[in-house]
C-alpha cells in the first residue's frame, strides 16, 4: 500500500493531542456520546467545544504549533472534538470528519484503490454510492460487481484476484436488507480484502461494525448523527492506526473536510443520539405494524418484523431496528406517488434520520440514479424516515394518506 503514491503521512496528518477525558472512566455509549472528545475548553472552561471558526493559527516561533494546529484543512479543534467522539462511539482508533458522506466515501476509495482494483458492491445501496462507483470511480479504472451481500456465499462468488474492498450497507437503503457483518468479514479476511460498512441507517448506538470485524465504518452524518436535518456531513472510522494515518493524509491532501460549524452541529446532534434512536425504533415498529395490517400495502420492509428475511441477523447484531421503513403500495407507481403526495405530517422530501418524519418515492427521488441497473428499486415503493413525533399522530397521517 502506498508505494506508487509516495509517502502516506506528513506533518499535516499528525493527530492533535487527544482531548477526551479517559480519567472519567466512562465507557457506556450514552456517556461517551456526551463526553468523548469534549473536555471543557482549556482556555475558558466552556463545557461544549467552541466553534473555532478560524483558518490559521499563530505559531510560537517557526514550527512552534500550539496543540498541533497549523491550518484548518489539516486540523481544527472543533473537528478534532467530533473526530475523537466518532472514534469513541464506533469503538475505533481514528475518526475523520468530512464535508459530506460522499466526500468520505470518495476519500476512502481513493485511499484504498488504484486502477485495476475491484470492489464488490451491494445490490441494494444508497443511490449516490452506486453513482460514485458506476459513474466516477469506473472512469479511473476501478472495477466493480454487484452481489446480494445478505448471502455471504454470493459475496464470495464475486471475488476476483484484485478484489480490495467489499462494500456493505446494513440495513440497506431503501429495501432494509440485512447483511451478517461478521460472516462477510470472514469472507473479506480470507480474500485479503477490506470490509467497509456504511452504518448510516443504524448509527453506532444500534450497531458497531468494527467490533464485528469490519475494517472501515462510513457515515453520512447528515442523517441520524446530526439528527436535525440542518447539516450535511460524513465520517470514516477505523481501528487500524496505519490506515487511519493514510486516510488522514488523503483527507488533507484532497481537502473535503467538515467545517467548524458543521462539526459543531453534528457533535450537538450526537449528544441525544441514544434517546433519539430508541424513540425512532419504537415509532417505526408501530408504523411497520400498521402497514403490515393495511389492505393497500402489499409488502413491508422493516428488519424488526419477525417475517423479515434478515430479522434474526439484525436481532443478533443490532440493539434495536432503527427508524427506516419501506413498503409497496397496491396499484403500482402512481398509487405510491399518490400516497407520498397525500401525506401531511410526513414531509415529502429526500434524506432521512432527522427528528421530523419524512416520506419519499425512491424510484423517482433518492434512487433515480439506479434506474436500469441491478440496483433499480420497485416503482411502487415508498420509503419512510419515521421521526420522533407522537406515534399516534404519525399513524393517523399514514392512515389518511393510504385511505
Ligand atoms: C445519504 C447517504 C449517503 C451519502 O451521504 P451525503 O451526506 O448525502 O453525502 C451515504 N450512504 C447512505 C446510506 C446515505 O443514506
From TrEMBL:
Gene3D superfamilies to which the protein is assigned, alphabetical: Aspartate Aminotransferase, domain 1 (3.90.1150.10), Type I PLP-dependent aspartate aminotransferase-like (Major domain) (3.40.640.10)
Organism: Streptomyces cuspidosporus
Keyword Methyltransferase: no
Family: Belongs to the trans-sulfuration enzymes family.
Superkingdom field: Bacteria
Name of the protein: Cystathionine gamma-synthase
NCBIfam families: PRK07811.1
Cofactor(s) essential for the protein: pyridoxal 5'-phosphate
Span list, region Disordered: 1-25
UniProt-listed InterPro entries: Cys/Met-Metab_PyrdxlP-dep_enz, Cys_met_metab_PP, PyrdxlP-dep_Trfase, PyrdxlP-dep_Trfase_major, PyrdxlP-dep_Trfase_small
Keyword terms, alphabetized: Pyridoxal phosphate
Pfam families listed in its UniProt record: Cys_Met_Meta_PP
Amino acid at each position: 500500500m502506498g508505494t506508487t503514491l509516495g509517502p502516506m503521512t506528513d506533518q499535516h496528518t499528525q493527530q492533535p493531542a487527544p482531548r477526551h477525558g479517559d480519567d472519567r472512566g466512562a465507557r457506556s455509549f450514552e456517556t461517551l456520546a456526551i463526553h468523548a472528545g469534549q473536555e471543557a475548553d482549556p482556555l475558558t472552561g466552556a463545557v461544549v467545544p467552541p466553534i473555532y471558526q478560524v483558518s490559521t493559527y499563530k505559531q510560537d516561533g517557526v514550527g512552534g504549533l500550539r496543540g498541533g494546529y497549523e491550518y484548518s484543512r489539516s486540523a481544527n479543534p472543533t473537528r478534532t472534538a467530533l473526530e475523537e467522539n466518532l472514534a469513541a462511539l464506533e469503538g475505533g482508533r481514528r475518526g475523520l470528519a468530512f464535508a459530506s458522506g460522499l466526500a468520505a466515501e470518495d476519500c476512502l476509495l481513493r485511499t484504498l484503490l488504484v486502477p485495476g482494483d475491484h470492489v464488490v458492491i451491494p445490490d441494494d445501496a444508497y443511490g449516490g454510492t452506486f453513482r460514485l462507483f458506476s459513474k466516477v470511480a469506473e472512469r479511473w479504472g476501478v472495477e466493480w460487481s454487484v452481489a446480494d451481500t445478505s448471502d455471504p456465499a454470493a459475496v464470495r462468488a464475486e471475488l476476483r484476484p484484485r478484489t480490495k474492498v467489499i462494500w456493505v450497507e446494513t440495513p440497506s437503503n431503501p429495501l432494509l436488507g440485512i447483511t451478517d457483518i461478521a460472516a462477510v468479514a470472514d469472507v473479506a479476511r480470507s480474500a485479503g480484502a477490506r470490509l467497509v460498512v456504511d452504518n448510516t441507517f443504524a448509527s453506532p448506538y444500534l450497531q458497531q461494525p468494527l467490533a464485528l470485524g469490519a475494517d472501515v465504518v462510513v457515515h453520512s452524518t447528515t442523517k441520524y448523527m446530526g439528527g436535525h436535518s440542518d447539516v450535511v456531513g460524513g465520517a470514516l472510522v477505523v481501528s487500524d492506526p496505519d490506515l487511519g494515518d493514510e486516510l488522514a493524509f488523503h483527507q488533507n491532501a484532497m481537502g473535503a473536510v467538515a467545517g467548524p460549524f458543521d462539526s459543531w452541529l453534528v457533535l450537538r446532534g450526537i449528544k441525544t443520539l441514544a434517546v433519539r434512536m430508541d424513540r425512532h425504533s419504537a415509532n417505526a415498529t408501530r408504523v411497520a405494524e400498521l402497514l403490515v395490517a393495511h389492505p393497500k400495502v402489499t409488502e413491508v420492509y422493516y428488519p424488526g418484523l419477525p417475517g423479515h428475511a434478515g430479522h434474526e441477523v439484525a436481532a443478533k447484531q443490532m440493539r434495536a431496528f432503527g427508524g427506516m421503513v419501506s413498503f409497496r403500495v397496491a396499484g403500482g407507481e402512481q398509487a405510491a406517488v399518490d400516497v407520498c403526495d397525500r401525506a401531511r405530517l410526513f414531509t415529502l422530501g429526500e434524506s432521512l434520520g432527522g427528528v421530523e418524519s419524512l416520506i419519499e418515492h425512491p424510484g423517482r427521488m433518492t434512487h433515480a440514479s439506479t434506474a436500469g441497473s441491478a440496483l433499480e428499486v420497485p416503482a411502487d415503493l415508498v420509503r419512510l424516515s419515521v421521526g420522533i413525533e407522537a406515534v399516534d399522530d404519525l399513524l393517523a397521517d399514514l392512515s389518511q394518506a393510504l385511505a
